[in-house]
Amino acid sequence: MQRRDLIATLSGFLLVSGLVFSAVKGGIKGKILDSLNHPIAEAAVTIISVDYPSQQYKLRTDKKGMFIQIGLDPGDYRLRCEKEAFQPKEELVKVSINEIIEKNFTLSSLAEPMKVEEVPGKKELRKANTFFQDGKYAEALAAYQEAAAKAPEDGAIQYNIGVTFMAMGKVNEAIAAFMRTIEIQPENAQALKNLGQIYGRMKNFAESVKFNSQAAKLSAFDPEVFYNLGVGQMNLGNQEAALAAFQKSIACDEQYADAYYQLGLIFLNQNKMAEALAALEKFLQVAPEDSRAPNVKEMINIIKKKDVHLVRPQARRGQARISVGRLLLVALGRPGPGSKPATSPRRGCPGT
Fold first, then answer.
1. pTM above 0.70, yes or no
2. How far apart are CA 265 and CA 333, in angstroms?
3. Cα dihedral sign for 265, 271, 272, 274?
4. 64-89, pLDDT tens digit by residue?
5. Surface-to-core class of residue 7, CB atoms within 10 Å of its CB (0-12 exposed, 13-18 middle, 19+ buried)
6. Is the CB of residue 250 less than 8 Å from the CB of residue 244?
7. CATH fourth-level superfamily of 26-107
């Protein structure tokens, strides 16, 4: 696995411990009718998570044309309704915490002309996305701003403006755009995540923790959110909170190499050799070609050999004792607590 360059990486130490987040769910319900307001029974309803496309739900309407799906994690979903001999319909739906969203549909018969509604700013948005994908950020920004003028309350457009500003290296403007996004869409997890990463890069860890904490509540399966949250907490001196966040990161993605690496370092710092060995060996298993692999192999060899030269048998009077693991870190030239992470915000392609 390649080293992740989108998130904060503490070169000194980080991670582990347990944290259990309460699973707060939402849902979607609705009714599907024909153009004469008659219920359509046995219509196929597909619900797909935008963030995690493998998370899909398939159901059918009852004889009253009704459907309901509960137990959905908060976030954006694509809701598609279809029935043989009818024009299918699809819509983007936002699921909130502890709320059942109602979405009703009227399907037109294939024999009827389908009504096409012009969505404000949609044309400009498509044009802007094309510019962005071609790397023409100035043109993309102009088109996004034109779309925003036509649809000022569209949070997705504001989010895309923020991503474009980041691609242009205009951090303050990006912050303003993402703040505008969460004004319109308070549960836009990606905007919150980006704000957390940006503030982390600026070394404003209090703001980074604030936004990453909010994002973590909405993105229960995103390892980067919890990793960045741990970075911020560690830099604020909140070690237990950092440990919990990093363990959650690993729970989200068992192949998350950076997490195992930092887990090994923090166990070394705590003089927990067995735990450190397990974490570092897992790192090598997950990322054998990583640039840090040679140092990790050296650490593993020293731990296994229990190099007596790293042990200070007894501190002189007036001196603090130093753990074997801490001395190992010093011997390998690894910085200790308080090292500064190099964070980098996500620069994905804007959404449609």
1. no
2. 12
3. positive
4. 999 988 888 888 888 989 988 888 88
5. buried
6. no
7. Carboxypeptidase-like, regulatory domain (2.60.40.1120)
